[in-house]
Amino acid sequence: MSKSRFVEFLKDEEGASAIEYALLASMVAVALVAFVTPIRTAITTIFTGIQTALS
Hints:
The chain has one domain. The chain is mostly helical. The chain has helices at about 5-10, 15-55.
């Protein structure tokens, strides 16, 4: 591989968007995993309270 082709390869930004989207998707997945359990617990508590009030 010649030096000019190597420099062109390093300057190529065509795949950068895909990597950025993958990083964004992984951050969203981590945030969902972090917040699913507390939200589920809160919703379960609310519905248990409603069920108890109706019984």
